Amino acid sequence: MTDDLAVETAGLTKRFGDTDVVDHLDLAVPVGSVFGFLGPNGSGKTTTIRMLLGLIRPSAGSLRLLGRPMPAAASEVLPDVGALVEGPAFYPWLTGRENLHRLDAAGPDGWRASRSSRADVALARVGLTAAADKRYRAYSLGMTQRLGLAATLLRPRRLLLLDEPTNGMDPQGTREIRHFIRELAEEGTTVFLSSHLLGEVEQVCTHVGIVSLGRLVAQGPLDELRADGDATLRVETDDAEVAAAVLIRMGLNAVTLAGAVVSAALDGHRPEHCCRELVNAGVGVRSLTTDRPSLEDAYVALTGEGFDVAG
Fold first, then answer.
1. What is the phi/psi pair of residue 295, to 5°?
2. Secondary structure class of 54 (helix, strand, coil)
3. ∠ CA 152-154-158 to the nearest 5 degrees?
4. Is-contact 12 25, C-beta < 8 A?
5. How do residues 127-140 score in pLDDT, each as one tens digit?
6. Cα(172)–Cα(193) distance, rounded to whole angstroms?
7. Structure confidence by residue, pLDDT tens digits, 196-214
8. Residue (of 151, 148, 174, 173) closest to 163 by Cα position
9. Helix or strand (DSSP H, E) at 255
């Protein structure tokens, strides 16, 4: 166990009947990261978050939040943790602002003097100032998600656990939430973002954990996961056959020709070195590009499954 991790689990398991919904999960979420917990719907992501927060007890394993064991240290840890799980719930007859005031009043300390200003700041950060005095029952799904995010910001948080935070939002709202999450990370907050959307995770996260059927199949910095696959060199030239021969001579693998385009697996070779050798061989290089593996490529390679790539 280490204080460098905001979330740490060892063998975390949740069993319902004979089914392991979460199966021996070993998470390591670095402090200050935006950690994407990525997997399709039904892969155990929400169940994991509920265990982290102490809402349900694990069947086996252990977990720590902010360096403290849970649920034993829940009363000390949870005031520093904000969470949005399975959609927020508020009083329908109260306005957005009134709901935040009511929620803040249940806090463990007496921050009454700054309650109004903190609620206004939180509403502004999620783009709800104009709807602050509208009753919650009139909120759209996207607005309810925004209000749930505002609720997590009423007090300083060292860790945010967000379960599908852009659910129900239009593209503009989704972009705003991505920007908002980046801002929080820059301010030092660790963000644990559960999502089934590859595009969302790839655009905002620094680290990723990929879960499939309740099991963690990979985790680490996003760039390292994407780099696990081979990059592909693509050369467009009228001298395709000569270019292919040069690349083969250099030791590149999987060299293929498709009209004026030659492709090859870089396999550790530097693109600029390849370009120099091609030019020295008299090849007229019209364009040279390197295609790096995407997060989708890494996911499919690790799990063999397709995925929702919308974002």
1. -60, -35
2. coil
3. 60
4. yes
5. 899 999 999 999 98
6. 19
7. 877 778 888 999 998 888 8
8. 148
9. strand 253-258
